[in-house]
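Example record used in the benchmark description.
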Amino acid sequence: MIYFVRRFAVFLLTLWAAITLNFIIPRLQPGDPAERIVRRLNPNSRTVDPNQVEAVRKMLGLPDTNIFEQYLQYLQTLVRGEFGVSYSYFPFTVTHMIGQTLPWTLVLGAVTLFIGFVVGTLLGAWAAWRRNGPFDSVTTLGATFLGTLPSFWIALLLLYVCAFKWGWFPVGGGYSGDAQPGWNWAFISSAFEHSVLPAVSILLFAPIGWILGMRNNMVTILGDDYTRLAKAKGLSERRIALWYGARVAVLPNVAGLALAVGGILGGSVVIEQIFSYPGMGRLLFEALRDGDYPLMQTVFLFIIIGVLLADLVADFLYGVLDPRVRRGG
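Model output (structure tokens):
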């Protein structure tokens, strides 16, 4: 019980530190968001009218207080769940914009992460069980080689061949313009069709870490003393591989899965940009580009909370699956 209480206390302390850094870091970025907006509205003007800048600042509700008062106001808005108005998508609120993009990222990220984890873990376990064989060599070398390729290059190649050249899939976007968003077949089929290429681009690389991590962990464990004792007792190879090898070797993958689950909220920025996919990764890129502090902070906050919660769940699972962890062994 002490182990779980200690882990939860560390979670709360880390969450407070992350929220504080999330407040400070965007304000270190140079430039004035109001001035950027005025320059975009008047691209041909070399000078910026200070009155226009001040009017935009008041319209957006930009703070004019000191940093400490802003920090207290920031904490109060977090407690109330109010994240302000987006500078880039004025007059829409930050909550509205995240609500529009979060489902796209969750569906794409969750599906690809689950498939990548399951496939990678199974392939890694099988490669370790048949280590030094043809399957082990092909799987390990193939995953290593594929991991050296840039993910954006593969995505651009798929976009050019499957969308531009052959026309099998749409060029970009989340769904076609004639589909009405909702629980209807026309929208669901269109959204699925638009998500195939982004999902394939992610799935080509998603299992690599799970394959190599599971394979190396399981090879090490299968050479331990208790595994050799199990063989001496006459247990079957299948039971040794599953209960003595895979059960322990999967623990580091669980920790990696927790971090990856939290990372889903951030989306894949590059992939979503290439395919113009309406997810949070693309939204984060636009917020960084435009200096949209409220939107930037809120997206980062969602990512931070997602990663910390997933890490807390992983710590609890570690304590349940491996008693040595909660006993301090």
